[in-house]
Amino acid sequence: MKFKWEGVMPAVTTKFTSEDTLDLELFELNIKAQVEAGVHGIVLGGTLGEASTLTHEEKNILLKKTKEVVGSNVPVLMNIAEQSTKGAIQAAEVAEANGADALMVLPPMRYKASDREVVAYFKNIAQNTPLPIMVYNNPVDYKIEVTLDMFEALLEFENIQAVKESTRDISNITRIKNRFGNRLKILSGVDTLALESLLMGAEGWVAGLVCAFPAETVAIYELQKAGKINEALKIYRWFLPLLELDIDPQLVQNIKLAEVYTGIGSENVREPRLPLSGERRKEVIEIIENGLKNRPVLPDYKNLK
Question: What is the side-by-side order of every strand in the sheet holding 204-207?
């Protein structure tokens, strides 16, 4: 039941070959780059992981591969995004059996459930798994908000422990802290609000551009934690044009293209997604190339006092 809800946790991309099969060699390369940079957890099968296009078997393969690569050094979270309560409970059971350390759980997919139905959904999952749970609260993209009153009801379950806060309302962090103290841990889920969220009391950051820039992402977290705010701000301000690639309908393609430029990924996506093309591709490449041209020299962020 104990889980350390803090630090940088990449929502990693899924690597595919040109034949549309899992590219486990490239996937391993990226996971190792994340671990080397000092990330504090790995999140599998999220939006960036193209979860909606993955089979259950592929998700299991990715989970087992990640556990093989990271061992006990870094916890691994499996995302649960299902259409039915029964399917979510089964997915949680399989994740536990294959070694997941915790779960990130979205509200029901497709059906816009009522508040009562959403609470029942999360409760049913929580009482059917011993794994710690982080609720993904993203009303902007998924059209369902988990309100503070709903969290009040959910927190009767000890294993509901954290929220991936993606409402894009920074003041919501203070509302959560005022109401629940440290009972509900907060991880920012929006790259362009990450440092602001950490400074307002969030314990961690479920990150996107970390997939291509792991060291810079972890450096921002560690610097602000050590009270070196100006140093964190300097990196964050450089990073912002890249971070904005995360708040875009084609965030998967954007971030995979960035991974190509940093040598730890490929552009291969699973249809119906297609790689970027035309003017938008040129715009994204310009953002990436400008970022690389002005890439900051990082301090020794792993050994801060």
Answer: 7-10, 204-207, 185-188, 160-165, 133-137, 102-105, 76-80, 42-44
Q: List, as own/partner pairs, every contact residues 222-226 make where C-beta atoms lie below 8 angstroms and the sequence separation is at least 24, other chains included.
A: 222/38, 222/301, 222/302, 222/304, 223/299, 223/301, 223/304, 224/195, 224/198, 224/199, 225/198, 225/304, 226/304, 226/305
Question: Helix, strand or coil for residue 185?
Answer: strand
- CA gap 151, 265 in Å, rounded: 37
Our answer to whether residue 164 is catalytic in this structure is yes
Q: Active site includes 136?
A: yes
Looking at 164, 185, 236, 256, which residue is catalytic? 164
Task: Catalytic residue, from 136, 221, 236, 301: name it.
Answer: 136
Separation between Cα atoms, residue 45 and residue 37, nearest integer Å: 21
70 is in an annotated binding site: no
- Write out pLDDT tens, residues 191-219: 999 999 999 999 999 999 999 999 999 99
- Alpha-carbon span 184 to 177, nearest angstrom: 8
Expressed in percent and rounded to 5, the helix, strand and coil fractions of the chain are: 50, 10, 40
pTM comes to 0.97
> pLDDT of 241-251, one tens digit each?
999 999 999 99
Fold category of 7-296 in CATH: TIM Barrel (3.20.20)
User: What local confidence, expressed as pLDDT, does residue 2 receive?
Assistant: 76
Which stretches does DSSP call E strand in the chain? 7-10, 42-44, 76-80, 102-105, 133-137, 160-165, 185-188, 204-207
Per-residue pLDDT reduced to its tens digit, 253-305: 999 999 999 999 999 999 999 999 999 999 999 999 999 999 999 999 999 97
